Each structure stands twice: as structure tokens, then as C-alpha cells.
UniProtKB/TrEMBL annotation:
Stored NCBIfam families: wecG_tagA_cpsF
Organism: Hymenobacter cellulosivorans
Listed Pfam families: Glyco_tran_WecG (PF03808)
CDD domains per record: Glyco_transf_WecG_TagA (cd06533)
Keyword field contains Transferase: yes
Keywords recorded for this protein, A-Z: Glycosyltransferase, Transferase
Protein name in the entry: WecB/TagA/CpsF family glycosyltransferase
């Protein structure tokens, strides 16, 4: 697997975009019941605050540096430049390579409208892509019987890659709970579904390079996101400042951990 570097309390995988695609498709080809998390600032702060969620990230096969600040922190603390590996970019890259290799995919989450638009785009642009299935679960906790039926349906479809979009941290908890039950590589990609479907626009590349994607999301959903961004972004900067100060003090003799 890809080497990981510590950012605050989270182990973040490192490598080039091609490295991530290759490693994830290898997990899928092996039918490994593993999961991949795409870590933005919100997720890293959640892991700092809640030990049970930190364990979920620790047990992920791969944790991509989804947020630009997270990728930048890898470079700051480990003197290792790291590109952002966002779920919104990873999804189309994986679909393209899966189509080329003949690997199958399954889309789980969001709504029937989003899933239909995703399938339409994939079939239009990647006619060789094997889409094993799609499912939009209800927006409520499932009964044990419903959950067992959904797991059985996914395993019957037998996808290499299972893309999961239930929102953070629900999708990460769902993947961790189903590790060992679902015979696929599971990827929590959240907001990548409506973006890939063409139902939600994305900022141009120049704006993403300026770390403005969070501001755009806040503009789209101010009532839902303003508290999250006010709290998590501020908390992340404060924690990062403290770790940076401690790192500078001990830097000559104690480099940060890696694995």
C-alpha cells in the first residue's frame, strides 16, 4: 500500500494521482474488503475530536489528501510535496481506468436522480465500463434485515469497486462497519456523485488552487455548512499552528512520524 504520513492525528496516504489509481484498482481486483477515505479538513478535525472516528481512518487501506490544506500539511511537516487527491478527481480517473482494465463498479448512495445521471454520463463517455449496479438507500437507519439484503445484493453484483456517497462521517462509518462483509474495495467519495452527474457545478481549476472550494460549497449551502466551516476550519488552523510551533522547536532531533 501507499506510505502514510501523520497530519495532526490522521494517517494520510501519499503518492501521485497515478499511484492512488493503481493501488485502489489493485484492491478492487483482489476483491479485498478494504475501504478508502478521502480526508478533507472536516474529516481530519473529526478524527482529532472523536477517537472512534480516528480508528476508522487508521484502519482504512488508503486515506487520500482530499483537501488542499491536508495535502499542503504533508509537505509542511514531512518535507514531501504532495498533490491534492480529491474524491471529485479520483472518481472519473478510476472509472476511466476501470473501463480500460475491464473492472466493474457499483454506485451506492445519494438519490435515484443523481445515480441515473451518473450512469448516463458513464455510458456515454465510457461505453466499455462495467456498471455492476446502483442503489439509493433510504435517508434513515436501515433495519438489520434491510442492511443484510443490501449487502447480499452488492455481493451478488460482485463489483471490483463500490463507490459510496452517504456524506461524512456517515459513509466512513458505513464502510468500516461493512468491512469483511462486502467483497469489494469501498470508496467514500460523497459530493463527487452530483458533480460527476453534472447536477452540481465545480469551481474552475485556478480557484481550486487558491483553496476556494470550501467557500463555493458554503455559497451553495450556507444554512447547512456555515457552522461546520466556521468550527472545523478555525479548529484546523489552530491545531495546525500548535503542531507547527511544536515541530519547529523539536525539528533538529525529532522528525514527525511516518508509516
Amino acid at each position: 500500500m501507499l506510505p502514510k504520513r501523520l497530519v495532526l492525528d490522521s494517517w494520510i496516504s501519499t503518492g501521485s494521482p497515478a499511484d492512488f489509481v493503481t493501488a485502489i484498482l489493485a484492491l478492487g481486483a483482489a476483491r479485498s474488503s478494504a475501504y478508502v477515505c478521502c480526508a478533507n479538513v472536516h474529516m481530519v478535525v473529526e478524527a482529532h475530536q472523536y477517537p472512534d472516528f480516528r480508528r476508522i481512518l487508521d484502519e482504512a487501506a488508503i486515506v487520500t489528501p482530499d483537501g488542499s490544506p491536508v495535502a499542503a500539511a504533508v509537505g509542511w511537516f514531512h518535507n514531501q510535496p504532495q498533490a491534492r487527491i480529491a474524491g471529485m478527481d479520483l472518481l472519473p480517473m478510476l472509472l476511466e481506468e476501470a473501463a480500460r482494465r475491464g473492472q466493474s463498479v457499483y454506485f451506492y448512495g445519494t438519490t435515484d436522480e443523481v445515480l441515473a445521471a451518473m450512469v448516463a454520463r458513464a455510458r456515454r463517455e465510457l461505453p466499455n465500463l462495467k456498471i455492476a449496479g446502483t442503489h439509493s438507500p433510504p435517508f434513515r437507519p436501515l433495519t438489520p434485515e434491510e442492511d443484510a439484503a443490501e449487502v447480499a445484493a452488492i455481493n451478488a453484483a460482485d463489483p471490483d469497486l463500490l463507490f459510496v456517497a452517504l456524506g461524512c462521517p456517515r459513509q466512513e462509518r458505513w464502510m468500516a462497519a461493512h468491512q469483511g462483509q462486502i467483497r469489494s474495495c469501498m470508496l467514500g467519495v460523497g459530493q463527487a456523485f452530483p458533480v460527476y452527474a453534472g447536477l452540481e457545478p465545480r469551481l474552475p481549476a485556478w480557484a481550486r488552487r487558491l483553496w476556494l472550494e470550501w467557500a463555493y460549497r458554503l455559497y451553495l449551502e450556507p444554512k447547512r455548512l456555515w457552522k461546520r466551516y466556521l468550527h472545523t476550519n478555525t479548529k484546523f488552523l489552530l491545531l495546525l499552528g500548535r503542531r507547527t510551533a511544536a515541530y519547529l522547536v523539536r525539528r533538529p532531533t525529532a522528525p514527525l512520524a511516518s508509516r
